[in-house]
Amino acid sequence: MNRIAVISDVHGNMPALEAVLEDIHQRKLDKILCLGDLVGKGPQSHDAIAKIKLHCEITVKGNWDDFITKETEFETLKWHQQQLTHEDMNYLTALPFSAELMMSGKLIRLFHASPFSVYTRIQPWDSLERRLSMFESTEMTGTETKTPNIAAYGDVHQAFIHQYKDKMLFNCGSVGNPLDMPQASYAIMEGIEGDEETAPFSIQLVRVPYDIERSIRIAREMEMPDLEPYIQELTTAKYRGLS
User: Fold this and answer.
1) What is the largest CA-CA distance in the chain?
2) Cβ atoms < 10 Å from Cβ of 183
3) Which of 2, 42, 61, 110 is the most buried (most CB within 10 A)?
4) What are 13-68's pLDDT values in tens digits?
5) Is 133 left (phi over 0), alpha (psi -120 to 50) or beta?
6) What is the sign, positive or negative, of the torsion defined by CA atoms of 138, 141, 146, 150?
7) Which residues of the chain have pLDDT under 70?
8) Measured between alpha carbons, how far is 75 from 81 in angstroms, rounded to an integer?
9) What is the DSSP letter of 23?
């Protein structure tokens, strides 16, 4: 059996990312996949990119990874852009929209927000019709691919698993900016990777405590703008700004 970690929404929060990577190491998981939003909101976007490049076998593009590479009039976004190198910007621009893998006879599709766009947000409490749309094949995912059995995403910073008869939708939650409880979140998929024959398969959601005060201290020392909303989100897991 193979065990694969799925992480997302690091948002430049290095203490949270380091805690999750340490937990993954302790569990001796086989590989790590990342569902985007490496940057922004938190102060250490450059370091987050470097760590993700080192540890993740597949990384797809998130909404922050997309719009941080574009011209902006917003001073806060300009500050986050200034934390990145030219190489960082090129890396984010080149990230794929989605990825797929086979595991225990199930086709798993990975993307950041939805199969339609990195900006189309679908919440766990949205209508059944909208949630089932997460299994559609689109121009962004490739219309010639098969319909996935499992869709995995990030974006909403809410960890959950939903089963719809023969299909499963799951969100691995957020490493660096969780909005359901103030602990870093990721998922573990367990099955036989690359096998098209039906075999046992499971998904586990993992919560990892980390040093939130250290994250706040780093942001304060770097004089990150919009610090107070960031502190409220980290300490209360309640939404205060752009995710």
Assistant:
1) 53
2) 17
3) 42
4) 999 999 999 999 999 999 999 999 999 999 999 999 999 999 999 999 999 999 99
5) alpha
6) negative
7) 240-243
8) 10
9) H
Strand partners, 7: 34
Give Cα separations from 169 to 1, 80, 135, 149, 156 (angstroms): 21, 32, 8, 9, 13
Tokens encoding 129:
């019709």
Distance, CA of 100 to CA of 200 (rounded, Å): 19
User: Which helix (H) or strand (E) segment is 191 a member of?
Assistant: strand 184-191
- DSSP at 184: E
- Distance from chain centroid for Cα 48: 12
Start-to-end C-alpha separation, the chain: 35
Sheet order of strands, 202-208 included: 58-59, 31-34, 2-7, 184-191, 202-208
C-alpha closest to that of 181 among 207, 200, 199, 155: 207
Closest CA to 5 of 14, 22, 16: 22
Tokens linked to 65: 């990874």
Q: What does the block give as tokens for 195?
A: 């096998």
**Which domains are delineated in the chain?**
2-236 (3.60.21.10)
Nearest partner of 35 among 17, 12, 62, judged by Cα: 62
Give, for 34, the enclosing helix (H) or strand (E).
strand 31-34
Residues across the chain = 243
**DSSP-assigned beta bridge partners for residue 128:** none
| Interacting residues of 212 by C-beta distance below 8 A, sequence separation 6+ | 15, 182, 234, 235
